[in-house]
């Protein structure tokens, strides 16, 4: 079994006299900086390749002050999380994936010590640009050699991939860097990742690029968590109380995510978290309780009675198992 752990940070607006209320120039606001960790299971397809499942599980929502870097406390969270995953699924293979905000030597060293694969973005610098120059030259030339596009269209982008060993000044050893050199109408678009302990199906630079780009779907999960369940409405004065409210929002998200799984095979199987509360939880109904059952009586005009009945049966089977 392989689990991909995606780390990300997002702003959580703060107000007034909240504890640890700091301003951040990047977000241009007073805010906190929660650390989110999502887990995605990958499965092997019929042709022997691997693909990530559509469902991403939110495992961690840790509130942090915004005057610290994005990777603050990431290692401490992983040190507690990985043993739990390995205890639950012995032999599980873990891969850490994150953007350049988490590209820190202590995370590389921890992953290498725990034999956890990692693929982390790297920010642009002059040394990386010099090492990537040959591939950039090839991509630039290949893009320019394409035939002229039709009016109103542009030439398709050209991508070249490479890899090389690199050691930044704060690193204790060389590490493998994967680079993407892209020539496009808007100009050059180079990208870099530092990688280590990746499995055999991610040894090619192009495969690492495709693997890293899949983390973009986590942005949609963060939008659900923040926008649909209002997880950024955390205005308690004390920092610990604000963290507790963050956990309440996260619990609600996990519960609705579990409800969506119970709706597999229905039209709600891929519904967004914002859809389920409106259709499952915001209808007018009469609730009666007996010593053994809870009866929910919907109005005859309620349009999703059949789906609700199926959902209720699945919950009953789950509770009886």
What are its keywords?
3 domains, 15 strands, 3-stranded antiparallel beta sheet, alpha+beta, 321 residues, Nucleotidyltransferase, domain 5
What does this protein look like?
The chain is an alpha+beta fold and 321 residues long. It has three domains: 205 residues, Ribonuclease H-like superfamily/Ribonuclease H (Nucleotidyltransferase, domain 5, 2-Layer Sandwich), CATH 3.30.420; 65 residues, no CATH class; 39 residues, no CATH class. The protein is built from eight helices and 15 strands. Strands 1, 5, 6, 7, 8, 9, 10, 11, 12 and 13 form a ten-stranded mixed sheet that branches. A three-stranded antiparallel sheet has the order 2-4-3, with no helix packed on it. Strands 14-15 form a two-stranded antiparallel ribbon.
Helix content: 25-40%
Count helical runs. Answer: 8
CATH superfamily of the largest domain: Ribonuclease H-like superfamily/Ribonuclease H
* Sheet having the most strands: 10 strands, mixed
Mean pLDDT: 90
Head-to-tail CA distance between termini: 25 Å
3D shape? globular
> In total, how many beta strands?
15
Share of residues in strands: 25-35%
Question: What is the C-alpha radius of gyration, as a whole number of Å?
Answer: 24 Å
Order of helices and strands: EEEEEEEHEHEHEEEEHHHHEEH
Number of domains: 3
Structural class: alpha+beta
């Amino acid at each position: 079994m392989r689990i991909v752990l995606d780390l990300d940070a997002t702003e959580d607006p703060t107000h007034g006299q909240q504890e640890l209320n700091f301003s951040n120039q990047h977000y241009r606001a007073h805010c906190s900086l929660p650390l989110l960790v999502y887990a995605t299971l990958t499965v092997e397809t019929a042709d022997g390749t691997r693909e990530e499942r559509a469902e991403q599980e939110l495992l961690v929502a840790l509130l942090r002050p915004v005057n610290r870097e994005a990777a603050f406390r990431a290692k401490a969270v992983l040190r507690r999380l990985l043993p739990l995953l390995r205890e639950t699924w012995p032999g599980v293979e873990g891969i850490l994936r994150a953007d350049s905000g988490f590209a820190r030597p202590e995370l590389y060293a921890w992953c290498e010590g725990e034999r956890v694969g990692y693929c982390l973005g790297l920010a642009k610098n002059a040394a990386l640009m010099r090492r990537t120059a040959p591939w950039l030259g090839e991509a630039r030339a290949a893009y320019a050699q394409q035939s002229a596009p039709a009016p109103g269209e542009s030439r398709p982008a050209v991508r070249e991939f490479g890899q090389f060993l690199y050691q930044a000044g704060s690193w204790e050893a060389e590490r493998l860097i994967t680079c993407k050199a892209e020539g496009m109408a808007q100009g050059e678009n180079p990208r870099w990742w530092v990688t280590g302990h990746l499995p055999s199906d991610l040894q090619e630079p192009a495969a690492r690029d495709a693997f890293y780009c899949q983390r973009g779907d986590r942005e949609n999960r963060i939008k659900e968590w923040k926008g649909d369940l209002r997880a950024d409405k955390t205005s308690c004065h004390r920092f610990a109380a604000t963290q507790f409210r963050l956990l309440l929002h996260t619990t609600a998200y996990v519960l609705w995510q579990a409800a969506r799984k119970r709706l597999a095979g229905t039209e709600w199987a891929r519904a967004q978290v914002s859809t389920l509360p409106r259709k499952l939880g915001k209808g007018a109904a009469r609730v009666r309780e007996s010593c053994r059952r809870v009866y929910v009586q919907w109005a005859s005009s309620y349009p999703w009675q059949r789906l609700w009945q199926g959902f209720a049966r699945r919950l009953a089977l789950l509770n009886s198992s």
